[in-house]
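Running low. Got one?
___
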Amino acid sequence: MAGQSWGKSRMENWIWGLSLIALTMAIHGTGVLWIALADASIRVRIEHQNRLRWRHLLEFTVGLIGVVGLLLAVLHGIEAALWAAAYWWLGALDSPADAILYSIDSISTRGASGLVLERHWRLMGALEAVDGMLLFGISTAYLFTVMQTYWPLLTRRQNRVRAPSQD
């Protein structure tokens, strides 16, 4: 009988955990896609502006990276809140405050909050950490793509600025 109970609890953990991973991945993918579409629209306008000075392009790029980072952090917060809501709703943690702290700690793979899920739900915490690694990987890859995309614009403009002074 105890074996059946353990098997059932593991299955519930997997079902909830994988469902939340699928949901948060869909949310993250959608959010990154919207950010990328907005960035592409802005980049087209910048590429067609020949009078934009290198310094302004540099400032814009740094600002853009900051805004993209903030938007990604908001996405991660929403995703952690979904996990927290599930923990609280399932009774894995006693309060919403504990649930959000535990969730942020788990999704960031920090694991130092000192909070522990009810025994029945502990596998979910490990699945949230896996989800966090995937989500942060996507965010890191996207930030790298943004920097890589603007690098040619910066170097092309800087070369144009330096070329006349060398003559």
In short: The mean pLDDT is 89. Residues 11-44+57-157 form a domain with the Helix Hairpins fold (CATH 1.10.287). The first helix runs from residue 2 to 47.
